[in-house]
Each structure stands twice: as C-alpha cells, then as structure tokens.
Input
Amino acid sequence: EYFPVPDNDTPIVSIATDPEATRTQLMVFYKHEPIPNEIKLSQAGLVLNYIKSAAATMINERFQEMVQKPNAPFTSAYAYDDEYFVAKTKDAWTVVGGSADDKIKDAIAAMIRETERVRRFGFTASEYERARTNILKQYENGYNNRDKERNSRYSQEYVSSFINSEPIPGIEYEYNMMNMIAPNIPVEAINQTIAQLIGDKNMVISVSGPEKEGLVYPTEDELVAAINNVKSEKIEAYVEEVSNEPLIATPPTPGKIALVEKNEALDATVWTLQNGMKVILKTTDFKDDQIVMTGSSTGGYSQYAVQDPINARMMNNIITLGGVGNFSATHLTKALAGKTASARPGVSLTTQDFNGSSSIKDFETMLQLVYLYFTAPRSDDDAFQSFIQRMETQLKNQEAEPMVAFSDAATKALYGDNPLTKRTKVEDLAGIDYKRIMEMYKQLFRNPGSFVFTFVGNIDEAKVKPVIEQYLASLPGKAVKGEFIHVPMDYLKGKSENIFQREMQNPKASVFIASTGNMERSQKNTLLMSIFDQILDIVYTEKIREDEGGTYGVYTQGGISRYPKGQSTLQIVYDTDPTKMENLNAIIHRELKSIADNGPRAEDFSKVKEYMLKQYNENLKENSYWMNVLDTNYFYGEDNHSNYLTILNSITANDVKNFVKEFLSQGNEAV
Output
C-alpha cells in the first residue's frame, strides 16, 4: 500500500543548504494525478506518453535556447513529466534548473514563466513538427536495430514494467503504433493536455545549494511572491524564427579517389583521396542501421600549450559554441531534427580529430557537417559570453568542494606546478580569448589531407563513394602529416607525500596513491598493465573491503601513454574512516609488494585472463571496437588486433611479476 500525497492550494517551498554542496539546484513541481495502470497498459497510455514526451522535448529546446544567450537567468534547465519524487500516488510536471548564487529568484521566475507561457499559449506548429519528427526517428532507430539489441535493454524494460507497470509490447508494436498515432495527433491536442497537467494549484518549489558566507537565499515569502508576480504578468506567446535553409546551399564539386587498396587481414577497404586524405571503410552487420566515424590528424594544442596554456586548454570546450556554417548551435539542432547524424571536431594535446555517427540514410548529413567544420567554422559572441558566465558559476561553487582540493593536490603530486595540468579557476576566465581560440582551430584544421578517416558499420561502398568524393575528396589539402610539439608533461620523480585537512560535515579520509615510470608502449606491456590493474581490483576488494570493512571500494586504473613518450601510471583511490587510513595504506603497499615478489595468485590471474578473452570475443561484434582498431592501425601504425590472442595467451604469471617488479622499482610514488 502506498501513502497518498496530499494536494496543496498554496505553494509549498523547501529551502535546504549544505556547506559541502557545489551547486544550486532548483526544482518546480506541478503535481497531478498519475495515469491509472489500466490506462498505462493500453493504447491510450502510449498516446499520453507520446504527448508528454513531445511537450518535454519542445520546452527543453526553448530552455536550451535561453541558456545560449548572455545573462541567461539560469545556467541549465529542463523539464519532464514523471513520478513526484518517488511517490506512486502523484505524478508531476517537473522543471529542474541551476543558477548563479545571485540569480536564484530570477531563475525560479524564468522557469515558471516559460512553463506558464506553455500553459497559456502552448507550442507552435513548427516546434511540434520537429519534436514529432525526432520522436519518430528514435522509434525508427530502435526498430531498425531490433535484431541486435542488448540483453540489458530488455532487463531494464522488465524492471520498469514490474516497478512502474510500464507496458512492454516490443519495439515492432511500438514503432508501428507510433507511426499510426503521431501523425494524427495535432499540436492543439498536445497543448490542451499539457495545460491540464500544469495547474494553478499543487505547486512545490525546492531550492538546495551551498551554505557559504555572503550567499543569501530568497525566503519562502519572496519565492511565493515571485510565483504570483509571474502569474500576473502579461506574457507574450513564443515566436520562433523558422528556416528551411539546407546545411550546404551549393554542394561542392566532387573530388576523386586516387588509390584503392584492400586490407585482407582486417577486412577493410582503404581509399587515398586526391587531397591526400586516407579513408578506411569496414562493412559489418553488428547494427542494421549504424555507421560510426572517427577522423584524426597529428598536432593538437601542443602547438600552443607553452605560450598560451589557458586558451590551449579551453579549446575543446569552445570551438563548437558558435555552431557551423550559417547555423548557430541552436539553429543547427533544429536543422538536424529527424536526422540521426552527428559529427563534432575535437582537440587533444597531440591530435585534432572528428567523432560522429549516423544512420545509413543520414550518412550524407554527417559528412556535410564534417565539410562545414573544415570550411566554415562559426563564431558566436553571445554563445561565448553565456558559456563564460556558466563557467564562472560552476567554478565559484567548486572552491567549496573538498574533493576538488583533493584532486588539485593529486594533480600537483604527479606533475608539480606544470601550468598545463592546472585546473581552470575563475581568475583564468578573463584570459580566454575567443577570437584567438578560433584562429588556433582554423590553423589546426587547415589541411584535411593530413587526416585519416575511419568508417565502420552497415556500409554499402558503392553508395557512400559519391558522398565521400563530394564532401571529403573535394576538400583542399595535401598528404603532409601533421606534427606535435613535445610539451613537458613528465611525472615528478621520486617519492612525495601531501597530507592536508579540510573541515567536513562527515569526516572521511580520501587517499590517492600513484606509481609512475618510463615504459615502452607495446601491446604486451599494455596487456600486462591491464592484467595487473584487474588483479588489484580483485585483491583490494577482498583484503580491504571484505576483510577490513575499510571502504566501499578501491578504484584502480593503470595505463601507458603513447605521447609525448611512453610513461606508465597506476592510480589507486579510495575513501575511508580517518582512523583506518594508515592501516589500509599499509595493506595497499603490502599487496603491491606481494605481486612484485611472488606474482599474482593463480586463481586471480586465471580469472582475469578468462575475462579478457570473453571481453575480446564480445568486442569483435562492436562497431566501436573495429573503429578503434582501424584508426590505431592507420593513424598510429599499431596493430592491436591481429596478435591479441597470441600475446594474451603467452603471458604468464611470472611475466606479471617481472612487469610489476620493474615498474615499481623505478621508485616513483605520489601519495
């Protein structure tokens, strides 16, 4: 039996603060009666879920558009309709947002105002057309890949059905029904239903955030007054700028494929385009309607890291803020409505790259985006100012978070005062130069011929060939490989220890232990590090969590970097009672020494190798795995696939012992 949630005529307001909170969270609830289970399980339930999903999609698009503008009232906002918290006897139209410390009341008012605008005027026909198209596309994607669905998806549906009485008719039924239902539900029906869900009564306001000096929260009376003020306002109907402009008005003249090769070992086709770009294609049937893409070129922000560290570090967060071509980021989202296609440029320390995916039908759209990001990157000063304002709010709140101080200390223990590894702080924001960052971006992406693009999925080479010729081979470029500049990113040598204290409501000790050293990045060494890492997971779970009851879990991560040079690192992180820290640290080191001196326990070693073999066989049926294999092969010149099983099977427990002994003997440890 579930307890009833009572109705309320006047708004209920809850304000809660916490010294260790790192952000302000705002929630506005419009409570209403839940859908009865017998309706949920009928076709009417499917209709209601569609209506609520469409409404949430549309208002969230408005919220996102508002966030992109300077001086936005909130840093984020989104809405949905579901259970009121965890109650089974009440549902709620819920709006969730975040705000700067000095804009809490403004943010709440803006969230309510936009909701009130929807209640009074509803959504426009163009908004609804996009939402409906996007929802139908999601069902189409699920239907097209229905034969390759993971077991976890089915188990999630069964759990949801058991707990929430959600129907599970299967994707074929849902796809067919949705294509019958959605085209026959007009925007007026959406607006009428949502207006009924968003009532004048049953409102609840929740404000939670950090407790700190100088931060004054609005009172309950002030928030209730803000609600009443908004409801008495003369609110205008939403007006949308609608454009049917194509992504590329005049398609480029196609280029040509200069060379065609076949990689029999990896079952891939290799095209060298006239501009020097290499294109790798592998056709699979793992997903019936999926193509994944990556593109890589050497260089990265290493070119600018030493002279201009703040702009170099922030590049990846900023380069796509302005959208692309003639489209702002907001308008680009609208232009892509109903399409399953994405492509995004990125910049790491040593590479500039693209990542994307598409359905078969929208492959051309994905490549149009790539073409535009090469030829027509776009700046948007308003979007940049909005980003800086959101960052300022986020970074200010971080300063009160003990774990941020802990992370800073761990980074300093590994790298010292290297400016490239420092966390961005509020005072750094003034040094970010948007124009300079976009100039750096254009410089890094100026030669498409230096890129290697890899496509994996349900690919028909004859059909994608003219698309690749038009949008990739047409790009200017030459076959000159890019170069990265060696940047000082070495780990500190020797042993160091940094113990500091911060006042906390619930005292705990957080421990970070990192061992580092120089090491060749070979496939065997990479596998040995992975085996070592996984064995430690088993050992520490038993010795520290189960035997000592000292922590919920010990996190371990080992790796070997490729650039600027081969460096290995093993990080061990856990939380515990301060009184247990010294003893647990001793166990951590004891078990490391035991593996170095005696090798791993036979059962642990066997278990890890069995798991890696199982994981390998599962990976063989993943498009993302083959994309990584081919990209690594053609971009880095490393074959991590062909000899994987041979090398894995050849590794002995003694190999692990020697590997660990050599690694730890370098004597570099930061605590």
Notes: The longest strand covers residues 509-518. The two ends are 52 Å apart (CA to CA).
